[in-house]
Amino acid sequence: MEVKRIKTPLSEETIENLRAGDKVLITGYIYTARDAAHKRMVETLERDGELPIDLKGQIIYYVGPTPPKPGQVIGSAGPTTAVRMDKYVEPLLRKGLKGMIGKGYRTEKIRELLKIYKAVYFAAIGGTAVLLKEHIKSSELIAYEDLGTEAIRRLYVEDFPVIVANDIYGGDIFTEGQKKYAKIEI
User: In whole angstroms, how large is the CA radius of gyration of the chain?
Assistant: First the structure.
């Protein structure tokens, strides 16, 4: 299967050309945020209507990287379980978020929102945190420093490997994979 190379910020054309199951290499800036940062962003939106970052066309990587050792850009940076962020996703999609990277499935509600807001969910391989960090070339603290590893960071990535898990057409590698293997008789 062909590997697709994409750059951030994501354009509508890029998103329209992605299908569930596509292998993708991402180059450009992405943002980190986990549960605590998502909660704070949504609370800030509800209170002030503003965010510490412009999400138009951006990707959020669900990761709380460990502190870097001397001479490193970043510490271990593997994905966290995406479904934990589901209750915070819609307000961020309304602000222009176009991609999310995590591990595991998304709820039916999120799969529907991806179609409505024309955004994609990428799966990164869990358990490969040390390998994934090799694709991260810079890391800059952007907001919520008090959250420690869960602060929002701006990462520059080169050829960051992911798979399109959910696309704007309703494609879902998790349900499609289950159907494929459910037919195997043992």
Answer: 16
146 burial via Cβ count (<10 Å: 0-12, 13-18, 19+): exposed
Please provide the size of the chain in residues. Answer: 186
Domains contained in the chain, CATH given: 3-182 (3.20.130.10)
The answer to whether residues 65 and 77 touch, using CB atoms and an 8 Å cutoff, is yes
Question: Nearest 5°: CA angle at 121, between 120 and 122?
Answer: 115
Distance CA 9, CA 67 (A): 26
Give me the active site residues, please: 38
Q: What is the pLDDT of residues 97-136, one digit of tens each?
A: 999 999 999 999 999 999 999 999 999 976 666 678 888 9
Round to whole Å and give the CA distance between 34 and 85.
7
Q: How is residue 130 written in tokens? A: 């040390």
Model confidence pTM above 0.85: yes
Q: Could you tell me which residues come within 8 angstroms of residue 23 by beta carbon, excluding any fewer than 6 positions away? A: 1, 2, 3, 4, 161, 162, 163
Residue 28: strand pairing partners: 157
Torsion angle, alpha carbons of 18, 21, 26, 32, to 10: 100
